[in-house]
Amino acid sequence: MTGQRIKTSRLIIVFLNLIIFSLNPFLLNYASGCTVAVISGKATPDGRPLLWKNRDASAVDNKIVFLKGPKYEFIGLINATDKKALSVWAGINTQGFAIINAASSDLADDEKGGAENGRFMRQALGECGSVADFERLLEATNGRRQVAANFGVIDAHGQACFFETGKDSFVKFDANDVRMAPFGYLVRTNYAFTAPEKFKGGGYIRFERISHLFEKALGEGRLNLEFILQEACRDLVNEKLHSFPLTQPLPSDPACPLYINTNDTINRNSTVAVTVFQGATNPAMSYLATMWVILGQPIASVAVPIWPSAKEIPSPLTGPSTSALNESAKRIIAFLYPDVRGHMPQYLNITRLRTYGGEGVLTRLLRIENEILQKTRVQVASWEKAKPAPEEMADFAQNLALWVMASLKTAFPDLLKEIQIN
């Protein structure tokens, strides 16, 4: 009987721990990670600041929503299960103020630190029209916020910063300050430079890799939107293991495909979305501030542009339970990560990625994405000359998103035949 009571007690303890973990957003937050960057307009070829986030999370269903705050309207990335849109994980408002985050557990004072990262970003989008406003919000909430994050922000006034932020304090890193960012950009993963204890956070391998990628892109004069979307966010290299899966020879025997573990790559098995914000060059052009979003793991999806000034979200990017683009990415991911046993969902089938349809998954995705980029360049060039009505921007975004979904179904007919285009 004593042995049975001990066994029962242990089972109860395990069960309670599982409940605590599932209900604690802090713990869930740090079960994942993100790779992020902020780039000053001084470092980009077109003078527009950039803000990037690869979102790594346990929530595989993501969508975009249009929301109204106390002062400003905005668009944001949320968990599809968040029916009230209480937390926003990346977003931009009609003033051209954009915000992202990377959770940083080494800035947390206790187990609640970081629990409200998403809620705080939602608040900032609704109340802040500039980076200066955001800094004032941080000052006003010192000691009263449950956050632990590297917050990245840009605005239409040329500001581009990271704020390493805990409950009681924050430290500002300005991408325009040559003492902090000699090349005009800053990158972060899931640890803070100002943490009280060193080497506690995570993402060190990703930080080294993205630093090398940015250095190379800067030297080649291509630190731009295309570099982030088509190279950085989809990167599968693990430099520690000398693993370069897109260029190394594939096994000759198709029965023995090449696999890699994507826990420590920039495109991770836990990456659920990508956002890249193109800021406006000045407040008068804030209507052109753009959010590029990839719903799903970037090696299985494409980037689509949206604008807060359009005041609507294209139907393939939203929905009551999930979004069509997100669902399409999940189908492609199921093909690329076919083994569901144990920890095998961490392993990407590189052979399938490189040989699908005789040319590979990425080749087909980038062909579609290049057309998206070109169509958008042409449209934005006309909007620069004459400010469009919100309806015109909404119509362009909707039609482009519908074209994207149709193109994906054509490119991957066997994988996406059941996807509905709404």
Summarize the structure.
The chain is an alpha+beta fold and 422 residues long. It contains 10 helices and 15 strands.
What this model shows, in words?
The protein is of the alpha+beta class. 33% of the residues lie in helices and 19% in strands. It has a seven-stranded antiparallel sheet with strand order 3-4-5-6-7-8-9, with helices on one face. It has a six-stranded antiparallel sheet with strand order 10-1-2-12-13-14. Strand 8 and strand 9 form a beta hairpin. The longest helix has 25 residues.
Write down the Rg. 21 Å
Instruction: Note the overall shape.
Output: globular
Strand content: 15-25%
Distance between the termini: 60 Å
Mean pLDDT over all positions: 92
**Strand pairing plus helix content: what structural class?**
alpha+beta
Helix count from the secondary structure assignment: 10
The proportion of residues forming helix, as a percent range, comes to: 25-40%
Q: Looking across the biggest beta sheet, what order are the strands in?
A: 3-4-5-6-7-8-9
Succession of helices and strands = HHEEEEEEHHEEEEHHEEEEHEHHH
Largest sheet: 7 strands, antiparallel
Tell me how many strands there are.
Answer: 15
Low-pLDDT runs of 5+ residues are: 1-31
Note the topology.
Elements: H1 2-23, H2 25-29, E1 34-39, E2 50-56, E3 62-68, E4 73-79, E5 90-93, E6 98-103, H3 117-127, H4 131-141, E7 149-154, E8 160-165, E9 170-174, E10 185-188, H5 204-219, H6 225-232, E11 259-261, E12 271-278, E13 290-295, E14 304-306, H7 324-336, E15 347-349, H8 350-355, H9 361-385, H10 390-411
Antiparallel strand pairs: 1-2, 1-10, 2-12, 3-4, 4-5, 5-6, 6-7, 7-8, 8-9, 11-15, 12-13, 13-14
